[in-house]
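Hello forum,

I keep getting stuck at the same step: I have a sequence, I want structure tokens, and every attempt I make locally crashes halfway through. Rather than fight my setup again tonight, could one of you with a working pipeline run this one for me? It's a single chain of 222 residues.
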Amino acid sequence: MWCLDIDGTLTPPSEHVSAPAVALLKAIVSHVTLITAQALDYCVKINVGDFPNLVTEKGFLVRIAGHDNVRPAPLEVPGLVKEMEALLAKLGGGLFINVKQAGYAVGHPAGPRPAIFDEVVALMKEQSGRYDAYVVEETAGFVDITLADLSKASSLQAVMERFPGYIPIAAGDSPNTDGPMLRQAAAEGGNGVMVTKKLAPFPTVPGPDDMLALLAWYKALI
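Reply #2:
Ran it on my machine without issues. Output:
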């Protein structure tokens, strides 16, 4: 059972999953679960919204064999977003906020990480320290504050509970957000593949094209 992070692992930077990639995934659909931190509307936009096995928003929607199980969104932590909006207004610099069900993410325009981003990260860590339910994770271009008990690792665990006897193969490109999922796959007796990591019997996976080549190889086996 492949558990694939969509963003970055299957897409070049700032691009969506390509039509050939979607076609390949759907050709081995019974063996693949797509896992993304994005919402369902994003999945619809890139033409995988009808994928029968899909986990979005770090476990808010878990779809197995076409059956959806949706967790209720947590209550908003008082003042959390308001404080961040006030900081962004003061800092300027083109920073933007993306409010999510599990918290929010702050991003910066393409290019080098701006120095003012340190203040964003500092405030997020201060906020997460006040509210134990939240955790701060920084990836390329974004910093997220999300619920600590929701992750791609917990999503993978939910998937594997529905597929007893399957061996997971997890693929991701971020040590922060995908790392726990890859380690969870290893704990289940499977393999985790990261873009900078070589893990036998799989080759190094330096980008989306190689990830798709690996899936094509897998398709030939089944």
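DSSP finds seven helices and eleven strands in the chain. If your local run keeps crashing, start a new thread with the error log.
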